[in-house]
């Protein structure tokens, strides 16, 4: 299996499959469903499901005819967004096995020659491809051959077709196939049928010069294919970066719950496709089609890449609750930005930290729980205001940790940590009220003498101050404050300040 | 209970001290406090520090987090009141760039802590409940305790009153004994810290070691003074 082997996954009736992908339950997917070419009873049916076919419905009938035969027939329209998503999912199927893929409508080709060390045989590979396709909501036929043209022909012959490498062996395998398997155009097929040629083997036995003389270059190409030879080159192309899944409904969604139901299905599909590429979602764009017209496009930021549908759904729900679309929704699409989950080298000299992927998932879950703006690393901002601080997004991958390579504390950290604690001393902390609470302050002869506010009402036993601070006057909207530390009769030690411009007092917090 | 029954069951019982030793500890910066706690905050368990306003519970919480972070461990703070003062925490030696800070509402606090603990690899997760004493569902406490046990993480709760009850392995009570304004009152115009120190008495309220056998210790929380502060006042 070291030589070139090309697999072809063929998803027949991709439009019908795209409709089935959008159905939530297997029960719905097993119902008789028909896909018409247009609207109304006279529309011609293009494709039907197996159960509809078993009940008598056939492609080519009108909707009215089919309904007369199958009263329970469900007629559904394929939306362009659904079909595009199904085609993209087919490409992702190829990408989950090989980075070298080539796509064409309803088919994807990819190289599987190097998978010999992972799978026992080509049959196992073919079954793995079908299993993965089922996870992506697609039903595919698979063929593996030494050339692209042979693999394409193989998908017409059966559910799983393995064509051996040597041309002679391939010819033997293909000899019993009907001519249709080669995908002949009508111009080539008609003369062959007139000559009484019905199988691939019969075509292969015709003399090549005579076939070329009568059927031209196209005929010669099909003749070579029948002999197990294919000239068609395999031209792999890089896949599109963004992954999009969408759906449209023929009614208006007014509330969040049904929208979340559809979103969940879309997210599951998107994440399955990301998993095919071994990637995670680093951010997503949600596009809602509004009724009667217009779009609502919103970007959902993620602190770190994740593959958890529940987390993404929670983030979207939070965003929708915060900014409702304002009108009914008739369609939605999710476009995700893929990213690799960063791996990290474990360190012998550091305590074990969270695994990068768990860390990313945890950050995403926390963001979904409390909001992304409430998770991060605190940072002191360069300001004269005491309370100035900001929150930086959490580091992606794993938390930063300050250690020297010897595993000992860095000198600075060690010095700040050890000596004074020996004698039972520590640094006094303060708990801030955010924002500072309004408070009434009674002023006595030596300063504040009583406090009254929502947080406390107490006499002031000791007051130290004032400590005056002003700043930012050079940038406009400056501040002039007068700070006091007050020991109140409730036992607490508060920090209060007076805005010297408005004479309003504020309770900043208390020492604790 | 007869001696025979005791002998029979002793094979299945693990003495509390052995269990404690097996779990391991996260040491606090204060040797005296570690002595009371039997080595430090218990790993794989809920630990609690409580006391009224200005008793020093927040200082103990921040110092424990800072100490863990400076050792290179991973630690996080779930803050129910967004009360963290970054400037002071940094002055106290806490490496803020390494601290994961989660501002959650009271009802989200335990869930956020559980998510953090379940991520694995956290040595210490601090929960700052502030002044409120929320009534949390028992199931939430059980889940958090089980997660801590499973991951070997020390969870440190700081609240005004004991809130974890029997779910906590250790409970430390702080009581303010004095507030020292020192000489600051006379020279406030030149010196930003108006208060100098708060002294507190620390005692074990709950733990595997009998509280009555552990003598309380005294901690002094001092106002950090930096040279750069001088002259900021006008």
Please count the beta strands of chain A (DSSP E, at least 2 residues each).
Answer: 21
Structural class label of chain A: alpha+beta
- Cα shape of chain A: elongated
**CATH superfamily of the largest domain in chain A, called what?**
DNA polymerase, Y-family, little finger domain
The CATH homologous superfamily of the domain at 23-177 in chain B is named P-loop containing nucleotide triphosphate hydrolases
Q: What is the average per-residue confidence, as pLDDT of chain B, rounded to a whole number?
A: 82
Question: What is the topological layout?
Answer:
The complex is a heterodimer of chains A (512) and B (234).
Chain A: E1 6-10, H1 14-21, H2 26-29, E2 33-36, E3 45-48, H3 50-55, H4 63-69, E4 74-75, H5 80-95, E5 101-104, E6 107-111, H6 122-135, E7 141-145, H7 148-157, E8 160-162, H8 167-174, H9 186-194, H10 200-205, H11 208-226, E9 243-253, H12 256-276, E10 280-290, E11 295-306, H13 309-322, E12 329-339, H14 356-370, E13 375-380, E14 389-392, H15 411-417, E15 425-427, E16 430-444, E17 447-453, E18 457-471, E19 479-488, E20 493-499, E21 505-511
Helix pairs in contact in A: 1-5, 5-12, 12-13, 13-14
Chain B: H1 3-10, H2 16-23, E1 25-26, H3 31-37, E2 41-42, E3 45-50, H4 57-70, E4 74-79, H5 86-91, E5 100-103, H6 109-118, E6 122-130, H7 138-151, E7 154-159, E8 168-180, E9 197-206, E10 217-222
Parallel strand pairs in B: 3-7, 3-8, 4-5, 4-6, 6-7
Antiparallel strand pairs in B: 1-2, 8-9, 9-10
Put the structure in a nutshell.
The complex is a heterodimer of chains A (512) and B (234). Chain A has 512 residues and is α+β, with helices and mostly antiparallel strands.
Describe this structure in words.
The complex is a heterodimer of chains A (512) and B (234). Chain A is of the alpha+beta class and 512 residues long. Chain A has helices at residues 14-21, 26-29, 50-55, 63-69, 80-95, 122-135, 148-157, 167-174, 186-194, 200-205, 208-226, 256-276, 309-322, 356-370, 411-417; strands spanning 6-10, 33-36, 45-48, 74-75, 101-104, 107-111, 141-145, 160-162, 243-253, 280-290, 295-306, 329-339, 375-380, 389-392, 425-427, 430-444, 447-453, 457-471, 479-488, 493-499, 505-511. Chain A is built from 15 helices and 21 strands. The model of chain A is unreliable at 402-414 (pLDDT under 50). Chain B has a domain at 23-177: P-loop containing nucleotide triphosphate hydrolases (Rossmann fold), CATH 3.40.50. Chain B is globular. With 234 residues, chain B is α/β, with parallel strands linked by helices. In chain B, helix 6 (109-118) runs parallel beside helix 7 (138-151). The chains are: A alpha+beta (512), B alpha/beta (234). At the A-B interface, helix 14, strand 13, strand 14, helix 15 and strand 15 of A face helix 4, helix 5, strand 5, helix 6 and strand 6 of B.
């Amino acid at each position: 299996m070291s030589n070139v082997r090309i697999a072809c996954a063929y998803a027949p009736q991709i439009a019908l499959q795209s409709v089935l992908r959008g159905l939530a339950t297997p029960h719905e997917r097993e119902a008789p469903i028909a896909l018409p070419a247009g609207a109304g009873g006279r529309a011609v049916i293009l494709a039907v499901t197996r159960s509809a076919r078993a009940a008598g419905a056939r492609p080519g009938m009108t909707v009215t005819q089919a309904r007369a035969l199958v009263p329970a027939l469900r007629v559904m329209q394929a939306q362009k967004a659904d079909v595009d998503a199904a085609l993209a999912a087919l490409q992702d199927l190829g990408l989950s096995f090989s980075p070298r893929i080539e796509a064409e409508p309803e088919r994807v080709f990819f190289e599987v020659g190097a998978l010999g060390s992972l799978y026992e045989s080509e049959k196992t590979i073919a079954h793995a491809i079908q299993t993965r396709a089922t996870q992506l909501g697609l039903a595919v036929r698979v063929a593996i051959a030494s050339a692209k043209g042979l693999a394409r022909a193989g998908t017409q012959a059966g559910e799983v077709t393995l064509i051996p490498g040597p041309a002679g062996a391939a010819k033997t395998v293909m000899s019993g196939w009907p001519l249709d398997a080669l995908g002949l155009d009508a111009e080539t097929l008609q003369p062959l049928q007139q000559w009484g040629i019905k199988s691939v083997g019969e075509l292969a036995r015709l003399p090549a010069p005579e076939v070329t003389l009568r059927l031209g270059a196209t005929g010669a190409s099909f003749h070579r294919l029948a002999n197990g030879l294919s000239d068609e080159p395999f031209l792999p192309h890089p896949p599109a970066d963004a992954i999009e899944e969408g759906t449209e409904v023929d009614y208006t969604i007014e509330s969040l719950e049904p929208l979340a139901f559809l979103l969940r299905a879309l997210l599951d599909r998107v994440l399955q496709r990301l998993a095919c590429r071994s990637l995670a979602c680093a951010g997503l764009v949600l596009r809602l089609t509004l009724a009667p017209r217009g779009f609502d496009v919103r970007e959902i930021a993620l602190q770190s890449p994740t593959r958890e549908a529940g987390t993404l759904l929670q983030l979207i729900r939070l965003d929708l609750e915060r900014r409702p679309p304002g009108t009914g929704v008739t369609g939605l699409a999710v476009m995700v930005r893929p990213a690799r989950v960063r791996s990290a080298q474990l360190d012998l000299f550091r305590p074990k930290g969270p695994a990068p992927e768990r860390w990313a998932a945890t950050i995403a879950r926390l963001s979904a729980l409390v909001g992304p703006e409430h998770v991060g690393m605190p940072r002191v901002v360069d300001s004269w205001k005491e309370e100035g601080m900001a929150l930086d997004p959490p580091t992606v991958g794993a938390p930063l940790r300050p250690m020297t390579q010897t595993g000992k504390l860095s000198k600075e950290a060690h010095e700040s940590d050890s000596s004074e604690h020996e004698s039972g001393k520590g640094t006094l902390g303060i708990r801030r009220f955010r924002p500072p609470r309004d408070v009434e302050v009674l002023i006595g002869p030596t300063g504040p003498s009583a406090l009254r506010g929502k947080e406390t009402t107490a006499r002031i036993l000791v007051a130290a101050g004032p400590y005056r601070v002003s700043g930012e006057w050079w940038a406009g909207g400056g501040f002039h404050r007068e700070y006091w530390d007050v020991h109140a009769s409730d036992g607490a030690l508060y920090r209060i300040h007076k805005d010297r411009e408005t004479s309003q007092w504020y309770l900043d917090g208390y020492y604790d | 209970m007869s001696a025979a029954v005791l002998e029979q069951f002793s094979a299945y019982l693990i003495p509390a001290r052995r269990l404690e030793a097996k779990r391991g500890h996260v040491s606090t910066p204060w040797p005296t406090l570690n002595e009371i706690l039997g080595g430090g905050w218990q790993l794989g368990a809920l630990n609690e520090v409580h006391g009224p306003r200005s008793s020093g519970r927040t200082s103990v919480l921040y110092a424990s987090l800072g100490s863990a972070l400076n050792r290179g461990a991973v630690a996080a703070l779930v803050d129910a009141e967004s009360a963290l003062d970054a400037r002071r925490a940094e002055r106290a030696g806490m490496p803020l760039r390494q601290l994961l800070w989660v501002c959650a509402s009271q009802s989200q606090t335990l869930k956020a802590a559980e998510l953090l603990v379940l991520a694995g690899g956290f040595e210490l997760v601090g929960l700052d409940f502030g002044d409120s004493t929320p009534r949390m569902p028992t199931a939430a406490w059980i889940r958090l305790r089980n997660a801590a046990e499973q991951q070997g993480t020390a969870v440190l709760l700081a609240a005004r009153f004991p809130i974890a009850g029997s779910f906590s392995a250790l409970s430390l009570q702080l009581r303010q004994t004095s507030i020292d304004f020192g000489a600051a009152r006379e020279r406030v115009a030149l010196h930003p810290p108006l208060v100098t120190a708060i002294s507190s008495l620390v005692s074990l309220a709950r733990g595997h070691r009998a509280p009555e056998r552990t003598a309380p210790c005294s901690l002094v929380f001092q106002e950090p003074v930096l040279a750069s502060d001088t002259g900021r006042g006008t």
